[in-house]
Amino acid sequence: MSNFQVLIDTWVRDGVELQPGASEHQLRKFEARHHVCLPGDFRSFYSVANGMVEDAVDPRTDTRFWSLDEITQAYRELMGDSYLGMFKFADYSIFCYTYAIELQQARNATNAVFCVGGDSPILVADSFSQFLITYMKDPLEFPP
Fold it and tell me: I need a labelling partner for 16 at 20 to 30 A (CA). Which of 5, 29, 57, 136 fits?
């Protein structure tokens, strides 16, 4: 069982309401709109659960994972050269800070995850998979 499936199963057991998985068409539309290639781990996660429903949060961490539509909306609002190519996908404690993944056009690109919201992003994981592993093990390990 994949790391993201373990996390999704935990959320379901905890009563967290999730959006249905994104279709292949929705995933490709996101890629085309933003001229990026979604990494396999991120694509797989969103094909199973397209984020949480509005106002739902992980009760262990007060973190909310967003839908592709919310990610698109937030990308339009994320400005500044230090955040170029970063797509926010989750927030902690109603936007105390957010997590963003760096997406690029190349399929084999590095897709690091950052904590964003201050003057410059803070690296928290080298990949979405690594982010999920750390999040499941100790979600409060990430910096604010």
Answer: 29
Q: For the chain, list the domains and their CATH numbers.
A: 3-139 (3.40.1580.10)
Q: What pLDDT digit, counting tens, does each position of 55-109 carry?
A: 999 998 889 999 999 998 877 666 555 566 889 999 987 767 889 999 988 877 7
d(CA 43, CA 115): 20
Q: How far apart are CA 115 and CA 123, in angstroms?
A: 6
Pick from 114, 79, 77, 80: nearest CA to 97: 114
Contact 65, 55 (CB under 8 A): no
Residue 17 CA from chain centroid, whole number: 16
**Nearest-angstrom CA–CA distance, 131 and 47:** 18
pLDDT tens by residue, 26-42: 999 999 998 999 999 99
